[in-house]
Amino acid sequence: MNRDAPLASIKGVGVKTAEQFALAGLETVDDLIMFLPRKYEDFSQVVSISDIHPGKQTIKARCEKVETKRVRRGLQITTATLVDGTEKLQAVWFNQPYRVKQLSVDDEFYFSGDFEFSYNRYQLTNPSAEKVSDVPVSTDRIVPIYRVVRGLKSQVVRKILMELKPLITMLPETLPGHIVKKEKFISYADALLALHFPKSGSDVEQGRERLAYEELFVLLLAAQLNKQANMHLTGWQIPFDQIAVKHFVQQLPFTLTDAQRVAAWDIIQDFEHETPMNRLLQGDVGSGKTVVAGLASCQAASKGFQSAIMAPTEILASQHAETLSGLLKPLGVSVGLLTGGVKGKAREVLYENIANGGVDVVVGTHALIQEKVKFHRLGFVVIDEQHRFGVAQRQELLKKSERMPHLLSMTATPIPRSLALTVYGELDISTLNERPKGRKPIQTKTWSPNSRPGLYDLIDKQLSAGRQAYVICTLIDDNPTMEQKSVQEEYKKLRVGPFAHRRIGLLHGKMKSSEKESVMSNFSNHKIDILVSTTVVEVGVDVPNATVILIENADRFGLAQLHQLRGRVGRSEYQSYCYLMMSDSSAPTRRLREIEKSGDGFYLAEVDLKLRGPGEIYGRAQHGELNFQVATLGDTKLIARAQKQAREFVESGQDLVQYQQLALQVEKYQRLTKLN
What we know:
Layout: H1 15-23, H2 29-33, E1 39-42, E2 55-72, E3 75-83, E4 88-94, H3 99-103, E5 109-118, E6 121-131, E7 142-145, H4 154-169, H5 177-182, H6 188-196, H7 201-230, H8 242-250, H9 258-271, E8 278-283, H10 289-302, E9 306-310, H11 314-328, E10 335-338, H12 344-356, E11 361-364, E12 378-384, H13 391-398, E13 406-411, H14 417-423, E14 428-432, E15 443-447, H15 452-464, E16 468-472, H16 487-496, E17 504-507, H17 513-524, E18 530-533, E19 546-551, H18 559-566, E20 577-581, H19 590-597, H20 601-612, H21 614-618, H22 636-651, H23 660-673
Parallel strand pairs: 4-6, 8-13, 8-14, 9-11, 9-12, 10-11, 12-13, 15-20, 16-18, 16-19, 17-18, 19-20
Antiparallel strand pairs: 1-7, 2-3, 2-5, 3-4, 5-6
């Protein structure tokens, strides 16, 4: 048997079981070996119901009675009476109606959960339930629990893994031997055995540490190798033009922040090297990334090079083009806008001007990577909100130049240092962490739905003073199964209710581009007082006169997204306000308390990483697939260890060929993370 063998070839896997595995995406022996437990239940400490006390508890009991009730829209409660011969006990599950079918049999179960005082009585809350007959017999009874995918049960996974135990025992080492020895790790095979067949809690910890380290090491090694490969590419050398840069800075209607100056100087220095720049410019909301990109474009144009700036939406591309035109046209640098909305003769003329060098800076959407777009001499590429573009799209734009152009990726989502070290390991990073001078901190406050009338009065006072407001909702259409407010419903309600005397606009992602442009234009020109919108306004929309943002169902958003949305206001000298409306009257969540007290996107990103994990902040599409099973990007100590070893491995000049399994994983991540 080998790792590539189909699961159907294993003893105990019949046609039906093989189908179950296939539905769960598990087809080969390797798939199952790498299907790691999501948690562990310790059934070595079982108490009787008569001896139970508050806290995490495990009992062995039968279910005497079980039923499910729908208590309100979207919430079902399942209750059960459990008996073990000593006493009876109430258990409750939220939105787990399948428990009725599971427990309606005369079998004994291990129930493991929190025994707590809730709803005026003591009860076992959301306990796991494992049939006693399905729990493997062992003195330790540390039982791995696997994700239920398409109905695939843990006991089936455990049973087949037992058949694979001899194979797992013989698996070869995947990390270089000197690293395993230096880091005092257990072997690869022992790590997998420890996770699938643990004898103690320390087994699980050792196995997790070893496999988590390997996941991080592979990603960091791929990033280091990409960085090394990038050093061998030949790009354009763009000498520093002090006069052009000086003129650009002098004609700005504001003073650059120190962070903007440092970032701009980083880019100018990179331009002077023949090795193409591969830099990430991360800046908090409203920190002035576009100005830095404009300065760099001005510098490139002064030496005869074109710049391409790609933005994810037409709204954002249009705003960038407008901003850059204002900054660059007085200096004789021409700016063109290429989006889906530019059609017919105008589009053909623009194609021609890009090809003959008549346009110095081209701002656009995906339209920039179309085959018809030919550049005269493309030296500098900016990808704004780079996580919104796939690797292939970025590469298509880079191919528009006969030599590798300098690349600046920009993001308005502040990235925690630990995340930047891994995912962006091959990039140089510049950070804008200062707000432009004269901007006041945004006052942020959480509100309960019961206080809505008073909040509307506050918003109306701002409108009376000539300001404007955003109201953000999560859904487009009203959905009776969801409690979140829909943007359509809210728009209608505000028009006939508390703001009937105000001009109200509607914006969401399903509208045509021309409609969205029209609404945003009307809001920018103050023909609309309140813009009711989905999160389509999350990034880049700049209306300085808007001083209020009300976010409905704010407890359903992540910290990073709330911070992004809050950044739509506070873009002028006026005092601005962010109001976070709860879904119900319960106490504010930790996320809402954190955003109330801090306006620092980098601090909030660190908190978000701890609370939600990297997937939520970073987004699965951002870098292909960061399919970590064990590693967490919040473990900065383990990252630092893996980073050090990856760097030493590359510097030592060792060949990956001798580590076949490692080489395959590294190659996959190299393809995913490579920008140039």
